[in-house]
Amino acid sequence: MNDANIQKYQQALVEQLKKANIFKTPLVEEAFLKVPRHLFLPDEPLDKVYSDIAIVRKRGEDGRWTSSSSMPAIMAIMLEQLDLKPGQRVLEIGTGTGFNAALIASIVGPSGKVVTMDIQPDLVEDARQCLNVAGYDWVDTVVGDAGHGYRDGAPYDRIILTVASDVITSAWREQLAPDGILVLPFAIVGPQVTVAFQKRGEELVSVHIRPCGFMPLQGAFAPTQPVQTQLGPDSRLFLISEPGKELPVGAETIFTWLSQESHDSAAGVTVTRYELEWGLFAWVGVQDSQANQQTNLKATLVAKEDLADQNFIPSLAGNGGEFKAMYSAVLIDQDGMAALMRPPGQIAPLADMFHPEDDVPFELYMRNFGLGTHAAQLSLEYIQNWDRAGKPTSLSWKIRAIPAETEYHPADGEFLVNKPWTKLIISYL
Q1: Predicted TM-score (pTM) of this structure
Q2: Each residue of 126-158: pLDDT tens digit?
Q3: Residue tagged active-site, from 67, 69, 70, 328
């Protein structure tokens, strides 16, 4: 394949991202035209490499992805959040293929400094070779637990994570230069968001937030993974719930409820899937994050693979392809369960949440299982309060991250989320 044909592929991808209004600065657009992605994915066909899709790089023993080349769109979004300038010092956490490190290097240039870290030695070695071939041999590749950062290259003007974290470690704060920017996929409450924080004194203050979805950080600082509980004899039917929270009833009871008579009711609110994911679910998360607030168990009901087609669970949202599944958000009490769903008879498309097919508003319904109605009443209260507040989303959050030892009393409209090493102060703009 000659250079002219490669450039056509690159240009087509860039035009696609431009139509989606992804690029905000010429520097990021130029980087995508300059760095050939196929050099970092040499075994993949060019039409796949230059599509706006994530490409798996490595899987664990259970078949789950442990490394990938992210969707070019989200890579570009995060690079725009990073606000790179020539000559800056940058630490990347999550090397992957090395492509993102090359994009960073193409912007900051040899007068800057780029360090990319990963906990998986084989990935770092492969990325090292790809960076050399692409002409970025001056990028430093490091094997290590990036939760500790990399002191030898600090301080950094910019730090970026390409893996999801539920904490901001003290090392990242300490190794970030004054007025520097930290960008990370943040699993705070609700679905992940990629947040750009600017360091202002001892505080990190959010300056830009977008939706995202990344594999979790590995190593000593890895997020605690959700609990998966099988329902019934089929392993494709299960609940996903927060770690450390027990089911109010046994799994066999919940499975029985699913087979019994239920009652559907309208919530009186029209939503899109996007509003649900980053609006309602995030709203519920911050409400319940407050100290001393006790609620029933919130979980996700999942019917996976071909079971997703059988309408066995209430249909709220679906995924297609390799991760084919149907989902419902549920609230579980000792005598009943409320499941959010689309109108009776309406089946959610098995498509990516950003696919136009899944961008059609629908009226939100609830299906009540069991004899009790408390879970349904509480679900309706959440929904109506969120609706009255104007359906705010996590993209309208303002987040301040302060050292955990700092005493702070939240003002009206602020939510305090305690994390290791950090207190998060969240408010809606």
Answers
A1: 0.94
A2: 999 999 999 999 999 999 999 999 999 999 999
A3: 70
